[in-house]
């Protein structure tokens, strides 16, 4: 049964993280366009993209996507805990049992 719980959490966690990352990227693209008047760089590694724009995009997208994923996974863990009565397998401390 612990294996089933672990699989459920893995799928639930992955789905929430991917959904949050996609929403964050979409929101960041729109915010970038409003703030700069230009589309975000398609490939910041492209030498034709100005270095400061590439760095700004990398920092903004990393922070936005990372924060969105973390918040989504926290909400997913909270829902999982309310539903099962215990933390997801990956979040349990060594001394906690299911």
Describe the protein in words.
InterPro entries: DUF4235. It comes from Nocardioides oceani. It is a single chain. This protein is mostly helical and 98 residues long. It has one domain (2-91). It is 70% helix and 0% strand. The chain has two helices and no strands. The longest helix is centred in the first third of the chain and has 35 residues, at 2-36. The N and C termini lie close together (10 Å).
Quick description:
Helix content is 70%, strand content 0%. By secondary structure, it is mostly helical. It is elongated, with a radius of gyration of 18 Å.
Q: Number of helix segments?
A: 2
Helix content: over 70%
SS content category:
mainly alpha
* Helix and strand sequence: HH
How many beta-strand elements? 0
Largest sheet: none
- Low-confidence stretches are none
Protein name: DUF4235 domain-containing protein
Transmembrane segments: 54-72
InterPro entries: DUF4235
Organism: Nocardioides oceani
How are the secondary structure elements laid out?
Elements: H1 2-36, H2 51-84
Helix pairs in contact: 1-2
